[in-house]
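Q: Could you fold this chain for me?
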Amino acid sequence: MKTKIRHPEKVNKPVNPIKKKPDWIRSQLSNSKEFFLTKTIVNQNNLVTVCQEANCPNITECWSKRHATFMIMGDTCTRACAFCDVKTGKPEKLDPFEPYKISNAVSKLDLKHVVITSVDRDDLDDGGSTHFYEVINATRKKNPKTSIEVLTPDFLRKGDAYKKILEADLDVFNHNIETVPRLYLKVRPGARYFGSLELLKNVKEINKKVFTKSGLMVGLGEEKDELIQVMDDLRSADVDFITIGQYLQPSPKHHPLSRYYHPDEFKELENIAKSKGFLLVSSSPLTRSSYHADEDFAKLQQNRLKIN
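A: Sure. Below is the predicted structure, expressed as structure tokens.
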């Protein structure tokens, strides 16, 4: 009987080995009472947060301040973006009580600013825009002094469905561009770069009072001149606020990390973005779409007043 020889190249190895994190990227640990209070309120209301599902590195800091970003329409996405840690599959039916649950959690956490996002729901005729509308309305009714920010999917091939969200009383409309157009087929195969740009442009044209916002990840293999072009494209779409953060590879099966950007490089990108005319720029290794969103909203309001 012959013994099978296992060749090294045939041994199951990680597809994309994860690079060791540099000293400037470290998640905080905490046993604060506020952190566990936030966790309790989220669990008691049977809610999903992007903080948990996307394995956000800032969860301890944010939850210790009672800041949680709610993810509506379930925890299962109909797309499989190569950078994202949210699970993909066939989603369950919408929870008709979710608007109430979200509004109740916002009240219990006493949030002055809330961020509401969602998975992609390509299975729904309207992409979930009506559900967004209902969640916003319920939240506004129970928490009239709370500013509301939404981070939406692109509603690709859903026509004017996104307009339903703009019928609700919201303050910030965020849709992340994520990466440079050259990398879309690898990083966001289900999305279209110019579709996302058009969405952001249309939102601002429909409602000039709503702040528009978009986010970029770096470390996916992009070039500096490509990042600058995205900044120009976002300004052409009249986007007010851009966030720039480091891509952190969730697992060996996800898109490979090309490199870690140094904090000095984030500062340089911030200065470039500011020169383009954005009302606000947030650029750092741990910057995420909803990181310090409450403080940033206050800055947006102040900066708009300065201009006007």
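A (continued): The CA atoms of residues 181 and 194 lie 8 Å apart.
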